[in-house]
Amino acid sequence: MEFGLMFEMPQEMGLIAIAVRQTQGKGRGPNAWLSPVGCALSTVLVSIPLRSQLGQRIPFVQHLMSLAAVEAVRSIPEYQDINLRVKWPNDIYYSDLMKIGGVLVNSTLMGETFYILIGCGFNVTNSNPTICINDLVTEYNKQHNAALKPLRADYLIARTVTVLETLIHTFQDKGPNGVLPLYYKYWIHSGQQVRLGSAEGPKVSIVGLDDSGFLQVHQEGGEVVTVHPDGNSFDMLRNLILPKRR
């Protein structure tokens, strides 16, 4: 999305870019973000006043977007048991087993307003390279003798943006406590024990998110430590929180 354009848009006007395939996308740090046909791919522009609940807690934006993508599916009647989850800090998962999508946020502060580009992509109809939402629907139908219909990428993009708008309004009105119960309902880390830094690092228990949207972990000695997403990543396979490679 063209950065210059977003500063010319009236704040009350929405702007979204949608792609069918992505070959030159940018992920976190040096990572590339490549997406085949079948993914729901979008970048949406959101304007957030600096002196607002969310404007003072911008790290929550990525959590709201990943939550919106999960809720967009699980709030559809009869699809509530499709096992999509959120993984800290910005991933969408099938259970705690496999990544199915992710979120990338870029923000620019101009005067008293944050202009935020939220990129989101998740697999809807493409079974490769990992698994997709319609694979989960098919498996659910087999296990429960159900007849849920496959979902479309464009439909889920529309639902995700609508849910995101609702979550932002709720956050601006009630702060973190307005959205955290739903976030914790879907996240995969409740009670999880991990190690910080390396396989020999201190063992900690995940507590939740603090008031700024950062991860809180409880060390064995009793101290609660805050972990920032910009400097760390979560390695699910090794159960580690690692410094992010630059």
Automatic annotation (TrEMBL):
<dbReference type="Pfam" id="PF03099">
    <property type="entry name" value="BPL_LplA_LipB"/>
</dbReference>
<dbReference type="InterPro" id="IPR004143">
    <property type="entry name" value="BPL_LPL_catalytic"/>
</dbReference>
<protein>
    <recommendedName>
        <fullName>BPL/LPL catalytic domain-containing protein</fullName>
    </recommendedName>
</protein>
<keyword id="KW-0436">Ligase</keyword>
<dbReference type="Pfam" id="PF02237">
    <property type="entry name" value="BPL_C"/>
</dbReference>
<dbReference type="InterPro" id="IPR003142">
    <property type="entry name" value="BPL_C"/>
</dbReference>
<comment type="similarity">
    <text>Belongs to the biotin--protein ligase family.</text>
</comment>
<feature type="domain" description="BPL/LPL catalytic">
    <location>
        <begin position="1"/>
        <end position="172"/>
    </location>
</feature>
<dbReference type="GO" id="GO:0004077">
    <property type="term" value="F:biotin--[biotin carboxyl-carrier protein] ligase activity"/>
</dbReference>
<dbReference type="InterPro" id="IPR045864">
    <property type="entry name" value="aa-tRNA-synth_II/BPL/LPL"/>
</dbReference>
<dbReference type="InterPro" id="IPR004408">
    <property type="entry name" value="Biotin_CoA_COase_ligase"/>
</dbReference>
<dbReference type="GO" id="GO:0005737">
    <property type="term" value="C:cytoplasm"/>
</dbReference>
